[in-house]
Amino acid sequence: MISRACSLILVCLAAPTWAAQSYTVDPKTSKVAFTGHSTFHDFQGTAKVTKGTITLDGERSSGAVVVDATTMDTEKKGRDQDMHAKMETAKHPSILFTLTKVSGPADAPVAHGTWSMHGVDKQLEIPFRISGDASPRLSATFKVNFNDFRVIVPRNFGMKVDPSVDVSVELALTPVASTAPAAPEPS
Fold this sequence. Notes:
This protein is mostly beta strands. It has two helices and ten strands; from the N terminus they run αβββαβββββββ.
């Protein structure tokens, strides 16, 4: 009996504690950057966040962030045209991450959800962190493999692009006021 009680206490102490908080994402000050790798060189690019809402509440977390795939830009016109053609951004103009839960301790949380790109949905686990109190920011760095999303990566004249791309996201968050009813005044 004592062993069972100790196990329960340890499980409770190890479980993450979250204070439920909802946020809207500010597209104007949020950033998405990516780094691609090829046989000859690495290249960087950006894309714009269009909208998002997130509720962080541990296993009950939810939300979605939308990125405009048509805004992906590496500052090299030919490469950008090829990238947009391979990603078929005219047909699939958005990249969507749908948050389904958050696990881990508050100092090392992991977002679980569906990454939707190029008409393909894939489950991802993305470590992230939140910083700042008055102006919170959510930051995450992770890899996306374009092969998982049926995107054909370029291969020209001995140059091969690695299908694994490093993605860096920084979302500016605005806390949403709680809609919970106010506590009654003591009489």
